[in-house]
Write a structure and sequence with these properties.
Radius of gyration: 24 Å
CATH topology of the largest domain: TIM Barrel
Distance between the termini: 63 Å
CATH class of the largest domain: Alpha Beta
Largest sheet: 8 strands, parallel, barrel
Bound molecules: 3-methyl-2-oxobutanoic acid
Oligomer: single chain
Strand order of the largest sheet: 1-2-3-4-5-6-7-8
Number of helices: 12
Structural class: alpha/beta
Number of domains: 2
Strand content: 5-15%
Order of helices and strands: HEHEHHEHEHEHHEHEEHHH
Shape: elongated
Length: 283
C-alpha cells in the first residue's frame, strides 16, 4: 500500500499523472474509499447538504465538521486527507484562522486544511501557513460566497474574472499553499494555472486540463438527489440499489423470511418448557 504523501502528489503533477480526489464524511464510505486507488480525500463542508440536509455550506459548524472529520480519519490510512474549514471559521481574523485551523488539524489529524478565498484573504491564509499548518487553497467559484455571486455561476469568462482567478493562483502559491482546487471556471483558465504553477491544480467543474479532478462522492454514486451539478457523471445509482434492498428486507420481514432459520438463536426445548411451567405458576 503506497501512502500518498505530498511528495507523491508533486511527482504525479511533474510526471503528468492525474490525481483523483473525492469527498468523504463518515467511517463506512471512508473505508470503501480507503480500499480504492483514490489519491486524496476531502472532508468537505458539502457535508452540510449531503449529510445534514441543509441548503448550503453556510450552515455547518466547526464542531459538526470535526465529528465528520474524526470518523473519516479512522477509515483513511492511505490517502492524503484534507479538512474543509467551514464558513466564518477563518475569514474574521488571523488569530481566529490559526486557532480554528489548528484545532481542526489537531483533533482530526488530517494532512492539511482547505480554505476558500483568493488574495483578499491572503493575510489569513499566510498566517495559518506560517503557524505550521499545511493549506490547500480553493479559488474560482467559492461556494461559501454564493450569496455574493447570487448563485453558483461559472467564473472566468470575462477579463476581470480571468485576471482575478489567475492572480489568486499566483498569490496563493506565493503564500505557500500546497495545492489548489479551482471550481466552476473555464478550461483555459485551469490549463494556464496547471501549466504555470508549480503546485498541483485540481479541477471541479472546470474541465479536464488540470492535475486532477475532485467531486462530491455522493454525486457520482447517486447518493444525493436534491441537486446534481452539471458536470457530474453518475457512475452508480446507489440510491436505487438501497431502495431495492429495503423493499426486499420489508417483504422478508412481513412474510417471516427474515431472519433466516439458521441464524435464529435456539434454546433446548426441555429447558424452555420447564421455565414456562414455573412462570405460568406465578402469573
Ligand atoms: O465541500 C466540498 O465538497 C468541496 C468541493 C471542492 C468538493 O469543497
Amino acid at each position: 500500500m503506497e501512502k500518498i504523501t505530498y511528495k507523491v502528489l508533486l511527482e504525479k503533477k511533474n510526471n503528468g499523472q492525474k490525481a483523483v480526489l473525492v469527498t468523504a464524511y463518515d467511517y463506512s464510505i471512508g473505508s470503501i474509499v480507503n480500499n480504492s486507488s483514490i489519491d486524496i480525500v476531502l472532508i468537505g463542508d458539502s457535508a452540510s447538504m449531503v449529510m445534514m440536509g441543509n441548503s448550503s455550506t453556510l450552515d455547518i459548524t466547526l464542531d459538526e465538521m470535526i465529528v465528520f472529520g474524526k470518523s473519516v480519519r479512522k477509515a483513511i490510512k492511505k490517502q492524503y486527507l484534507i479538512f474543509d474549514m467551514p464558513f466564518l471559521t477563518y475569514q474574521i481574523s488571523k488569530n481566529r484562522a490559526i486557532k480554528n485551523c489548528g484545532r481542526a488539524l489537531k483533533e482530526t489529524k488530517v494532512d492539511a486544511v482547505k480554505m476558500e478565498g483568493g488574495y483578499e484573504i491572503i493575510d489569513r491564509i499566510k498566517a495559518v501557513i506560517d503557524s505550521g499548518i499545511p493549506v490547500c487553497g480553493h479559488i474560482g467559484l467559492q461556494p461559501q460566497s454564493y450569496k455574493k455571486y447570487g448563485g453558483y455561476p461559472v467564473l472566468g469568462k470575462d477579463e476581470e474574472e480571468i485576471l482575478k482567478i489567475l492572480k489568486d493562483g499566483y498569490e496563493l502559491q506565493k503564500a505557500g499553499v500546497l495545492m489548489l482546487i479551482v471550481e466552476n471556471t473555464t478550461d483555459l483558465v485551469v490549463k494556464y494555472l496547471k501549466e504555470n504553477l508549480k503546485i498541483p491544480v485540481y479541477s471541479i467543474g472546470s474541465g479536464t486540463e488540470s492535475d486532477g479532478q475532485i467531486v462530491v462522492i455522493n454525486d457520482i454514486i447517486g447518493l444525493y438527489s436534491k441537486f446534481t451539478p452539471r458536470f457530474i457523471t453518475k457512475y452508480e445509482d446507489i440510491s436505487k440499489r438501497i431502495e431495492k434492498a429495503l423493499e426486499r428486507y420489508a417483504s422478508d420481514v412481513r412474510t417471516s423470511r427474515f431472519p433466516k432459520k439458521n441464524k435464529i438463536p435456539t434454546v433446548d426445548r426441555k429447558i424452555f418448557l420447564e421455565s414456562i411451567e414455573k412462570i405460568n405458576k406465578k402469573y
